[in-house]
Amino acid sequence: MSGGMRRMKIIATLGPASSSESVIRKLAVAGVDVFRLNFSHGTHETHICNAKSIRKIEKELGKTLAIMMDLQGPKIRIGVFEDGSVSLKQGAQFILDVDKAFGNSKRVTLPHPEIFDALREGTELLLDDGKIRLLVEENVHDKIITKVVDGGVLSNKKGVNIPNTILPISALTEKDKKDVSIAGEIDADWVAISFVQTANDIECARKLVNPETGLLAKIEKPSAVKDIDAILDVSDAIMVARGDLGVEMPFEAVPGIQKMLINKARRHRKPVVVATQMLESMISCHVPTRAEVSDVACAVAEGADAVMLSAESASGKFPEDAVKTMAKVTMQAEEDKLNFFYDNFDNATTFAAAVKTAVQNDDVKFIVVFTETGKCAIDVSNARPCAPIIALTPNSKTIHKLALVNGVQAFLIDEVFTFDQVIEVVKNTVVSNFSAQNGSKVAIVAGIPFRTPGTTNLFYIHTLGNDELQ
């Protein structure tokens, strides 16, 4: 690992435990690259305030900090019970209906009439993260008659998962549409779409956001796994959202699905995030379990671009320690070369693969990529070269989007028009921001004419001399 830089990016969710400016600053210093604003919780005012704090701290630290807006999506929940909860017995009949009256041991409201037509005989319903399992026996207009397969205590407003069924609902609810309307006000770099079912969900969301804002598809439904190639074609990144995915699919299948999704994302040259319960024990404990450490290291080994903290940083007791732990574990995994993709991934573009080979053979210390949209930097990152990748762009939005990409550090530059200007900017960047030494080789990747997306056609290795280090 050249330069001792951490490649894996860290996303941290802000919440009650981390919404003060002082804590956000500590998390940024500890290693956060992207802050996630979870619109399943909190108010617009809270999220706007947090976004302002992030941008203020970004300027103070001189460190790129991206903002991810995570929309709630169509989370399906039951209504409330007269006594707050009921006990469902295995084999008993239980009804889901549109009656707004308090529920009891016989029935409860399912305030989502738009999905009733999809609930046919034999459809499986999983409640409270799969703890309760129901099987549809009959659909009578606005009443779903089910049999309790796995019983237990069911309380108010628990979530309902319906695996292996494409529901006639959009991934964007009315609440999501109101939330995404402030994406510009919070200066969101990424918008995460929850409960994506098909590529069409991403195409619909695309119409509501700024073209320069990245769209991230959260893969947490079996239908999304099946449609993953089409989803990757239209999204800018994906997230392996293991929470609901592990409810809707057999839990033993999730590790294999994670590997497959990471590999698919790499083949499509799109960033991929691994999320949910990465360091779950650190919500209440100062140190992680050894199994969690191995889980994070596996995400590195499998080739992910980023890992995400949820409750660990949003509501846990040790948000700063959780970030520091994530940074230490990912760096150690990288230094141990657990990631076989660094050497063996063969689905990079021909150009990126050539850059990687040349960098390894010529002992290049830095790769500098001139990019307008960030795509070239992502392509080079996807080859996982051994040298750090420095992306230079005149587009501030591109800088923040690249905060999600493995091994890339981005800097804002003025426009360049000549090759001499390219060399000058490269020298200034590596000398000012990195411990470049005399004789260090820098690989330069660019496109001519400059500022024309898709024209990457220049690869040049420059050797720093004494005069450039003064």
Structural class: alpha/beta
**N/C terminus separation:** 26 Å
Q: Largest beta sheet, briefly?
A: 8 strands, parallel, barrel
Strand fraction:
15-25%
Structural notes for this entry:
With 470 residues, the chain is an alpha/beta fold. The protein folds into 3 domains: 2-73 and 170-336, TIM Barrel; 85-161, Beta Barrel (M1 Pyruvate Kinase, Domain 3); 348-469, Pyruvate Kinase, Chain: A, domain 1, CATH 3.40.1380.20. The chain contains 16 helices and 21 strands. The protein has an 8-stranded parallel barrel with strand order 1-2-3-12-13-14-15-16, surrounded by 7 helices. Strands 6-5-9-8-7-11 form a 6-stranded mixed β-sheet. Strands 19-18-17-20-21 form a 5-stranded mixed β-sheet, sandwiched between helices. A hairpin with an 8-residue loop joins strand 20 (441-447) and strand 21. Helix 1 (21-30) packs across helix 2, helix 1 packs parallel to helix 11 (319-335) and helix 13 crosses helix 14. The model has no long low-confidence stretch (mean pLDDT 92).
Question: Strands, helices and their partners?
Answer:
Elements: E1 9-14, H1 21-30, E2 34-38, H2 44-61, E3 66-70, E4 85-88, E5 93-97, E6 107-109, E7 124-127, E8 132-140, E9 143-150, E10 152-155, E11 160-161, H3 174-180, E12 190-193, H4 199-206, E13 214-219, H5 222-226, H6 228-234, E14 237-241, H7 242-248, H8 254-267, E15 272-275, H9 290-302, E16 306-309, H10 311-314, H11 319-335, H12 341-344, H13 350-361, E17 366-370, H14 375-382, E18 389-393, H15 396-401, E19 408-412, H16 419-433, E20 441-447, E21 456-463
Parallel strand pairs: 1-2, 1-16, 2-3, 3-12, 5-6, 12-13, 13-14, 14-15, 15-16, 17-18, 17-20, 18-19
Antiparallel strand pairs: 4-10, 5-9, 7-8, 7-11, 8-9, 20-21
Helix pairs in contact: 1-2, 1-11, 4-6, 9-11, 13-14
